[in-house]
Amino acid sequence: MASAQYIEQPIQLATLPSFVVGEKYDRRKDIHEPFGGNRQSGISTSSQVPAIFIFTGGSGERYGYGDNFEDNGVLMYSGEGQRGDMVFNRGNSAIRDHLLDGKALHLFQSLGHGKGQEYLGEFVCQGWQPRPANDVDGNIRSAIIFELLPVSLLERRESLLPAASTLEPLEDARFRAIEASRMDGSLGSRVGGRTIYQRSADVRNYVLRRANGVCEGCERPAPFRRPDGSAYLEPHHTTKMSDGGPDHPRFVAALCPACHREVHHGEAAAERNSTLQARLLHMEAVD
């Protein structure tokens, strides 16, 4: 972790995308015109904001795509590629690496031609698996099926996680947090045998340890301590509207409750968030 002194230069970013679950949006005017991304692709990565827009439903099945929600809330989402085996390039690699890249996944349900897109929420990729499926020509090929978990479910589980351990060396905690953002191979809902919830805990625990009881926004001591004596700070994801999911530590800050509310709801929220991003990029070397 870098320790050199620096002058904070806020990163100039467009406003983070903010959508309301259940609301309908026009894909061109409400999504791509303000935030960028390919207007035709089912997996659309923006170069303007840290976001990936993914679309389900519509006419995908005729191209060999088929998505479905499981009873536990996980969306089994087909990768892209019409002919032959699916490979990790373009949209497929963007979904796989979205945690490492600090990009939020925004999911929309197509309501049919001219009827708009219903917003289903932010999701996090908890793994992927190969599955035999037909391609557009009817030939059997290996398809990539992503397991996408609603961030709302992950946030509820995160609220039950224990406080960060102080027994593990800080560098070991950092290593585990960085590994939590990586997707290596076809491991279903686990990476290295660890669930998405455990990986989320790894990132949260390291970020709180890194802060060492001092808010990474206002640089003041935490306002109070938990019953176990640990300083109370809250993880904030600088590249997402929500605060769930195990991003790389260079995108997650530990904030006091006041700073956390301000960076989400304050008059200068975007500027404060940009300043935090610049600070984190200097604090954390890119791995």
Write a structural description.
The protein is an alpha+beta fold and 287 residues long. It has 2 domains: 24-153, SRA-YDG (PUA domain-like, Roll); 161-283, no CATH class. Helices cover 27% and strands 23% of the residues. Strands 1, 2, 3, 4, 5, 6, 7 and 8 form an 8-stranded mixed β-sheet that branches. A two-stranded antiparallel ribbon has the order 9-10. The chain has a two-stranded antiparallel ribbon with strand order 11-12. Strand 4 and strand 5 form a beta hairpin. Helix 7 (257-265) crosses helix 8. The longest helix is centred in the C-terminal third of the chain and has 16 residues, at 196-211. The N and C termini lie close together (10 Å). Mean pLDDT is 85; it is low at 1-14 and 185-193.
Cα separation of the termini: 10 Å
Percentage of residues in DSSP E strands: 15-25%
Q: Helix/strand/pairing class, anyone? A: alpha+beta
CATH topology grouping of the largest domain: PUA domain-like
- Molecular shape: globular
- Identify the CATH architecture of the largest domain: Roll
Oligomer: single chain
Major sheet summary line:
8 strands, mixed
Q: Extract low-pLDDT stretches.
A: 1-14, 185-193
Number of DSSP strands? Answer: 12
What's the number of helices? 8
Global mean pLDDT:
85
CATH H-level homologous superfamily name of the largest domain: SRA-YDG
| Integer-rounded radius of gyration | 19 Å
Q: Could you estimate the helical fraction of the residues in percent?
A: 25-40%
CATH class type of the largest domain: Mainly Beta
Number of structural units classed as domains:
2
- Strand-and-helix sequence, N→C? EHEEEEHHEEEHHEEHEEHH
